[in-house]
Amino acid sequence: MYQKKIPELLDCGLSVAIKVVGGKWKAWVIDCIRRGIRRPSAIHREMQAVNPRIVNLHLKELEELGIIYKEIFAEVPARVEYRLTPVGMSILPVMEALEQWGNENKEYVNRHQAGYAPGNCALLQETN
């Protein structure tokens, strides 16, 4: 099993929040479940741009973090659904605030993305 060389510092609230919703696809997975898309196959269909293996890894990690839980129904064939835990529900206002910020600033970010280069602080200077 892979172990990180530098341990995660999860004493900082921002680090914890980024661990939950950070990355390219986790917020999308959480949003699918929030909207009632709960079965793994339906989540894969909704997120068809993402490799199903990656979606499954995010589902597993979110489950391990206690953000979602897996409900297994005793049917043949077995049916699995994911649901948000109370802690998972509590992240939704944060995601809504991030979405609102993104919608309000997407043109600005897109306009400046082409001019961005590592070490270029021009963006920070513009907002001051």
Automatic annotation (TrEMBL):
Pfam families in alphabetical order: HxlR
Domain of life: Bacteria
Keywords for the protein's UniProt record, in alphabetical order: DNA-binding, Transcription, Transcription regulation
Residue span, HTH hxlR-type domain: 12-110
Keyword Transcription: yes
InterPro entries assigned: HTH_HxlR (IPR002577), WH-like_DNA-bd_sf (IPR036388), WH_DNA-bd_sf (IPR036390)
Name of the protein in its database record: Helix-turn-helix domain-containing protein
Organism field: Chitinophaga caseinilytica
Lineage: Bacteria, Pseudomonadati, Bacteroidota, Chitinophagia, Chitinophagales
